[in-house]
From TrEMBL:
Residues 55-194 form the RUN domain. It comes from Culex pipiens (House mosquito). PANTHER family: SORTING NEXIN 29 (PTHR47194:SF3), SORTING NEXIN-29-RELATED (PTHR47194). CDD domains: RUN_SNX29. PROSITE patterns: RUN. This is Sorting nexin-29.
Amino acid sequence: MVGMSNFFLDPPLLGGISAADAKRHEIERKTLSDELLAVVKECQKKYGSKTELATENDSRIVLLCDTWERVLTHGLKSNSSVLKNVTDLMAGGSQEVPVFWDFAYKHLTNHEKERFSTLRHVWTNGGKGKSLLRAVLNERALERYMLMWLGDEKILEESYESWALIRDGEFAGLLPNMAAGLRTILFAISIDAPELNAPTKVRPIKVEPIIAAPPPAPPARKINAVPR
């Protein structure tokens, strides 16, 4: 008979992922949410009460678009479409990184699908997703689109992992408010530029290990001297 001391249990699983992965995803959601809130505030401070156009010539606007894209692709499931993978590879993209267009396309009208599929200088799915995001910023429609994207639970479950930021009620509930805060800004961002075809670089979020502090040393005992 095998002794119980030789039997080890796997780490606890939460929704099919380990406790360590669950903690890592929680930190990712918090970090992304904080980054988005910070860049939204920066753009509001610069452009919120002015008639100055906000374009991609400002690094703040570039960071804003990049951060929204990272939020909307966090936890996005891979699209196994062979045609899509071959098209993006030929265009210099990546077949391994899922792109926001795969999800957004399911919500578009026929007119919108045609609009973003017939751009002259954007041909990859990754580029179309970036173009769409910039277009809705230009048209002050991001809040409306966010509410639409968040409102269909079935498509969210099909498209995103359970740990994705967009499926976390606490964090996802903040996204329409952040989008609404951008309505006073006059965006004029290019939506048909070849550089949008470049794959987005995934920036891993560094999670610092938690090191437990050593226990305090016990107080030294006094030893009474024995008189001679």
